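W.,

You were right to be curious about this one. When I first looked at the sequence I had no strong expectations either way, so I just let the prediction run and decided to look at it fresh. Below is the sequence, 243 residues in total, followed by the output.
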Amino acid sequence: MKKKIGITGLLIALSLLLFVGRKSFRILFTLREVVIASPTAHLTEAEIIRLSGVEMESNLLTLPLSQLEKNLRRFSWVQDVSLLKRYPGRLYIEVKEQQPLAIIQIDHWYYLNKNGEIFRQLTADDSHDFPILTGVSEKPASLHQAVSFIEQYQKAGPSSFFGISELHWDNKQGFSVQTLRPAFRILFGKEKLADRLKKWESVGQSLIALSGKKQPLRVDLTYEKRVFVKVKPIKPERGKQNA
């Protein structure tokens, strides 16, 4: 009788251990929370979770991170994805968004990032406030060279004053920039672009000093030892002139 009771007690104890074990396993490995590590400009936290395809109460141990990453990368604004499991029951998702640097027209208008990669076709809701590439080949090397030049141009002090609306490539004349405000063209050419950007630093500062008095029309930096600048006087407004 005692032996029978002992076996029964052992079975009950084992059942309790199995029950507690299963409960602990569920607590440890069941997905309870998804944490979005950093905010993004084009995706809400709820949208990131939805696009990833992850489901709450999933088994965290067998959760296929590679598939979740693949799901997120289908969205054109997503450049990079990091996923991390944290026990018990937590998944971290970090999304790095694409940063547009320029726009190019092929069959439609597209964004390019700083690597010269086309990543998104523009929609009516997307910003068009980026430099437009014209005359540039669709070859990756050409696109990379163009966006690299834009980055270098934008680092020059006067460039923030005059802006850039267009970067044009001509097979004979090379690169030229159409400024934004006021609008005029700067010829950089095909060679020694770093040296010509340094020239632009000096010439641009001189043009800023003339702002309000003379309107730049054209700047040619392609000559070895000269810079050609064409300007026109700005006529004062009639009211100011009489004053």
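Here's what jumped out at me. The domain at 29-97 is CATH 3.10.20.310 (Ubiquitin-like (UB roll)). And, maybe more interesting for your project: The two ends are 120 Å apart (CA to CA).

Coffee later to discuss?

I.
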